[in-house]
Amino acid sequence: MRRFFTVGGRRLSYLDFGGSGAPLLALHGHYNEASAFTPLAEALSPQWRVIALDQRGHGASDRAESYERDDYVADVAAFHRHLEVGPAVVLGHSLGGVNAYQYASRHADRVTALIVEDIGAVVDSDWSFTTALPRRAPSRDALASALGTAAPYLECSFRQSKDGWGFSFDIDDTVASQKALNGDHWTDWTSVTCPTLLIRGTRSDELAATHAREMIVRRAGQAHLVELPAGHVVHHDAQAQFAAAVSAFLSEPHKML
């Protein structure tokens, strides 16, 4: 069910997949929105109630003037308070992964376990793909055709407007967000105290195998690495295996460490 709440004068949207299970808060990456977690929510039900946020500037949430690190983390904190579900598991992909571990670092009493999908403690990505995205296309098929092999990863964000088809995110806002995401976030990563699962795609162009292993070493005894045959968007490329890895970790997070 889609719901809304207001923070700082802006309206944020989220999808509550429902059920009586324990809450799991999910944070998507750039180019995506809450609906990207629909398959995971179905796979984890009924043991887990997935609640996924449309982060600022994405999906049905309002655009913002700023996309800095503290802005995203404050949104997650406001989202969690609004839900009134108590301490919860937090999962995040890419942009959402950094938001998730920074939230867990700064609000340790609110996060019982952490799942980070294919993003590092140091982020150094470029935005050339973003600036090359088509601003408008005459039809949904034309937009998908212009995106080529990237279309399946972005299709949940396709939107029709009066002047054609585009995205539920703004391209310029995304560039600003990506610039703000880059940097050294080791302090936040190593400050996390809850059990943590890091999931990496073996074909990832974002998280190198050596960096992923260093992340585990620096959190010795607290974090576990799973690598799946996938690119950067592991939950899309290896849907069933991703859900199985998440489910196994959630069943007994301490035993996986």
Short description:
The chain is an alpha/beta fold and 257 residues long. It has helices at residues 38-44, 69-83, 95-106, 128-131, 140-147, 151-154, 171-181, 186-191, 209-218, 234-237, 239-251; strands spanning 2-7, 10-16, 22-27, 48-54, 88-93, 111-117, 122-123, 158-161, 164-167, 183-184, 196-201, 223-228.
- Helix proportion of residues, in percent? 25-40%
Shape: globular
CATH topology: Rossmann fold
Q: Beta fraction of the residues?
A: 15-25%
| Number of DSSP helical runs | 11
CATH architecture: 3-Layer(aba) Sandwich
CATH-wise, what's the superfamily? Alpha/Beta hydrolase fold, catalytic domain
Number of strands: 12
| SS-derived structural category | alpha/beta
CATH class: Alpha Beta
- For the record, give the distance between the C-alpha atoms at the N and C termini, rounded to a whole number: 34 Å
Strand order of the largest sheet: 1-2-4-3-5-6-11-12
Mean of residue pLDDT values = 96
Number of domains: 1
Uncertain parts: none
Biggest β-sheet strands, sense, barrel: 8 strands, mixed
Order of helical and strand elements = EEEHEHEHEEHHHEEHEHEHEHH
Layout of strands and helices, then pairs:
Elements: E1 2-7, E2 10-16, E3 22-27, H1 38-44, E4 48-54, H2 69-83, E5 88-93, H3 95-106, E6 111-117, E7 122-123, H4 128-131, H5 140-147, H6 151-154, E8 158-161, E9 164-167, H7 171-181, E10 183-184, H8 186-191, E11 196-201, H9 209-218, E12 223-228, H10 234-237, H11 239-251
Parallel strand pairs: 3-4, 3-5, 5-6, 6-11, 11-12
Antiparallel strand pairs: 1-2, 2-4, 7-10, 8-9
Helix pairs in contact: 1-11, 2-3
